[in-house]
Amino acid sequence: MKRRSFIKTALSATALSVAAAFSASPSYAADDVIKVGILHSLSGTMAISETVLKDVALMTIEEINAKGGVLGKKLEPVVVDPASNWPLFAEKAKQLVAQDKVAVVFGCWTSVSRKSVLPVFEELNGLLFYPVQYEGEELSKNVFYTGAAPNQQAIPAVEYLMSDDGGGAKRFVLLGTDYVYPRTTNKILRAFLKSKGVAEADIMETYTPFGHSDYQTIIGNIKKFAQAGKKTAVISTINGDSNVPFYKELANQGIKATDVPVVAFSVGEEELRGVDTKPLVGHLASWNYFMSLKNPTNDAFKKQWADYAKAKKLPGASKPLTNDPMEATYIGIHMWAQAAAKAGSTQTDKVIAAMSGQSFTAPSGFTVKMDEKNHHLHKPVFVGEIRPDGQFDVVWKTSGPIKAQPWSPFIAGNEKKKDEPSGRSDTK
Hints:
Helices cover 37% and strands 16% of the residues. It is built from eleven helices and 15 strands. The longest helix is centred in the first third of the chain and has 22 residues, at 2-23.
């Protein structure tokens, strides 16, 4: 009875504090708003990863509004669901920019969704903030990339695996979902591995479709490939809900990190929520942020998210998790607000100019900066090991933020590419 009374009192106190926060918010005129778009899959195969980005965007917008909004105006989110349907992403993007007249859009996860909407933003001169690691090989005047380029995630992770500290891997399995991000990233990694003396016979490359769920044969093939007598590692670019059956099958077939370590580029705390992580201890992920990082900025970010998730009764609020794309979303929205304030306008071209050199103290514990030319963040890199509780212990990190290389030096012809966006994207 005492415990129930305590919980009831605590919940009442939380409700009062939330109510007080809202009552203390600035008052705005009914028409004094700036519309901002949120373009994430809330259904379909990518909802496991993207739904939480919608929620953290809404939290950040509430935070900014509580502090006076942008240019004295309230931010009004316009949320749409492209439902993991790549052509629908383009339709929804056009709706947001042309019909809803949003000043900016925060969204997309997969590169195929980003490439689907890119012509819309360029044609209509809209502005997209893209918060997820990707394959590079793109620069657009109308996009700011707040996730990692390959040299800020994939390359450092593979260098770690090849090092003595990372186990000295000599053979590599490149396993991914069949679309542009995994294929281009693995093209870069193949060239990188060959530059390090790794033979073609020591590289296995396999792809599965979105939503794939049967990994029994693939895991069996990985076990056979790893029996060649050389240390083998798996580089996973599997995206979306396929990660759950992949990791379950990994555990079923007894592949331990000490034998064949897996490093993932699209798996974080949220994707591991539905998996028994005890058999996965020691497997790896490479990101620019982990929830387990210890610093005051991250402590505040985690508390803010936990309070928001509980107040909004979000799914998983009993175990609120933060991850890298959430941090990148949070950074991007704040940077856009800073740039609009600096420009004195939300007009696209003025905000683009004001974004140059913007900085923000990130939950990673580092001050990240938007590059003056290439529309990418300078970001730190971390490699983390999965813990029994689904969190990550950092086993390697850079000493500071790394400048992005949108055009990988491991792709032929990139030495001629300019490290700055033109009026339209320069994509392959």
